[in-house]
Design brief:
The protein is built from 3 helices and 2 strands. The chain is an alpha+beta fold and 105 residues long. The chain has a single domain, classed as Winged helix-like DNA-binding domain superfamily/Winged helix DNA-binding domain (Arc Repressor Mutant, subunit A, Orthogonal Bundle). A hairpin with a 5-residue loop joins strand 1 and strand 2.
């Protein structure tokens, strides 16, 4: 799974740090969903509860990557966020029996 997209063309140590941070954020998000297996959460809620010091796009990237990897499922359930718009929610993919986020297949 791609963790970090390097649109800023970082190199060396800075790139390593950014990749590590992105992977750590994804692990935190997946752990949160595993602790709340029946929950449905928007990206905004994930940012507030799991990544409060990260930019919104970091939470969005983590949720998108975990969805693409089969760990999360986008639901049809919508919630109204603080700015008045309806947004989708995600849930843990309980049929996905993968043990760890980065285990070898």
């Amino acid at each position: 799974m791609k963790d970090y997209y390097n649109t800023n063309k970082e190199r060396g140590r800075r790139l390593q740090e950014s990749r590590f941070k992105a992977r750590s954020q994804q692990e935190l998000v997946l752990d949160f969903f595993r602790q709340n297996p029946a929950g449905r959460f928007s990206v905004h809620e994930i940012r507030r509860q799991v990544l409060p010091n990260a930019p919104h796009h970091s939470a969005q990237r983590a949720v998108t990557n975990l969805t693409d990897a089969g760990h999360l499922v986008k639901t049809d359930m919508l919630v109204v966020e603080s700015y008045g718009r309806q947004v989708h929610t995600w849930r843990l993919n309980v049929s996905n029996r993968q043990i760890g986020l980065f285990d070898a297949a």
